[in-house]
Write a structure and sequence with these properties.
Elements: H1 5-17, H2 20-27, H3 31-45, E1 50-52, E2 58-60, H4 62-86, E3 94-101, H5 105-119, E4 123-130, H6 132-140, E5 146-150, E6 158-166, E7 169-173, E8 193-197, H7 202-212, E9 218-223, H8 226-234, E10 240-242, E11 257-261, E12 269-276, H9 283-296
Parallel strand pairs: 3-4, 3-5, 8-9
Antiparallel strand pairs: 1-2, 5-12, 6-12, 7-10, 7-11
Helix pairs in contact: 1-2, 1-3, 1-4, 2-3, 5-9
The structure holds a DNA duplex.
Amino acid sequence: MQYTLKQLRYLVAVAQYGNVSVAARHLFISQPALSTAIAQLESSLGVPLLIRHHARGVSVTPAGRKFLTRARSLLGHANELELLGRELGDSVRGELIVGCFVTLAPFFLPRLLKELQRSHPQLHVHLAEGALDQVQAALLAGETEISLVYDIDLDRQLATEELTRVRPHVLVASNHHLATHSTVSLSALATEPMILLDLPHSRDYFRSLFFNAGVEPVIRHRTQSFELVRGLVGQGHGYSVLNLQPRSNRTYDGGRVIYIPIEDPTTDLAIAIARPRGLQLTHRAEAFSAVCRRFFVDG
DNA sequence: CAGAACGTGTCAAGGCAGGA
DNA sequence: TCCTGCCTTGACACGTTCTG
């Protein structure tokens, strides 16, 4: 092994700032020293990791991006090993960046983090919410180590572990003519205006439900906000289909919504923890996984 | 233990590209 | 064309490790 952890740390910093001089200032070393370290790393690997743009900073090569993912993971393990050495026999500690699909976050993260804090008080979690594409990209770039996601159309470079499944429901205002029904078929909604939760992957999932039922939904509004979907439904702008049910049927503006089971056969959505395939989790991420399993599987 | 070798840092100078 | 910003290279310093 020719490279050093210091070189990896330098590379991660340069990639982060896109500029050798800026990275050097943050690392408290001189710019030539940093430039030399990166050059030595590239030389030992035999692969260019950065593209130098004279007077315009640097960018990461495709090979460099793949290498960075592994480098960040390795640095995470190295950090953990250092902490382990300092506190042999002590509990899980350090920092963990957890990604989460934006609509899942408010439903589960507050309680998950509370449980995690109770089990591992020395573990400090940083959150990175986003759409599924963003969450996946962060995992593949090594910016997050583990994420809570819906298991739909995920990148094949990610490994997932299913935690639970959630069934889709029709959402209508409490004064809607279907609100008193115990179930509803999607065909009964064919002429009703729909409010679509318009997030990548989610929109395709909702459309597939209607496609399988042979129904073409009349989309009245699209929004990327889960709560705006509920708000619009609560004020009678249309119905929606959602998988997650908040404990309160009140919307932000005081409207009231009703969740009704769907009569048609539907595909449940799997909630899963995702991580880059082939990368060994740190003990911190393992601790988060264990808390998720207890939370979802054991109740 | 002393000198050589090595690794890693700084400073200074030079080259390149973009912008005024 | 000149200025500015930024990267690379060369010379050198200093601390650590290796070797006889």
